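Support reply, case 0932

Customer input (verbatim):
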Amino acid sequence: MRLLLLACLRAQTGNATTASRIQDHLEAAGHECSLKDAFGYENPSEIANLISAEKFEAALAIHLYKGGRLLQGSTIPFGIIFGGTDINEDIKHEEKRWVMGAVLEEARFAVAFTETMKELAAAEWPDARSKIYIQTQGIMTTPSATFNWKRFLQSAGIPEETDNLRLFLLICGLRRVKDPLYLVDAFSEWHRREPNIHLVIIGPAADPVFTSEVNEEVNRAPGVHLLQEIPQDDLHAAVKKCFAVVNSSTSEGMSAAILEEFVQLSKNLMTDPTWGREIVAKAKAYVRQHHSWECEREAYQKFVLRLQ
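Our regenerated output:
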């Protein structure tokens, strides 16, 4: 089939990464899948013209509102993949909630990343429960073999000669919902007591106004550093080299990062290597069981058959 895949494609964001992975799954099954940025279209009529011009036979959209609203009244069958903020945030706004309900009614199927996400959607739109399927996100990392750790530290302004460096990495687009400033004061205070402790916040400036606020806060916080986004392969390599990955968000659909927000627990992790190894081993086992890239591929290849 000729498939249209709509998603918000800001560079180095979770939505863009997920969309690219799903596109790859569908093309591996022999479909022609064209990935389009939902931000590039204003209304359903523009998408209708695109569908007609490029002769798409079916469509998928990530995010029930941002992508889904563009497929309202579509002449071709389509499926929806919940994004997280659609169910956690947009559902609170009456107009958006109405649009999302209409989109979900038209969709052949909907995909939720978690049981919680499905239940939230089903509670709002009970008639859609039977068409909502749970498929966790697949994980595949590709750390760069040429990543330069010393250069990375230099770009963050972290002295290479720091003894027993403990670098925590917070990966997120700089927007309020990601709440990157939540840990700044705690980490800065910790750094004052133990200078080998550093927090690096890295990600694209998704919200220019908020990015300015983050810059101001980081500039006054010793031990906290802000970096622009880097290629995904380099980011995966940085994750391997850092001490721990942090996640902070006021609304999370499905984070691909590790959640650890308590200084005391972090200190315990530093002083107990056995505990750290146990956490890593269990995390790897959990990802293999619940976030298999191969299982995700098989699932989306089956989902798309519902659009024939």
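We compared this against your earlier run and they match. Two observations from our side: The mean pLDDT is 89. The longest strand covers residues 2-7. Please reopen the case if you see a mismatch on your end.
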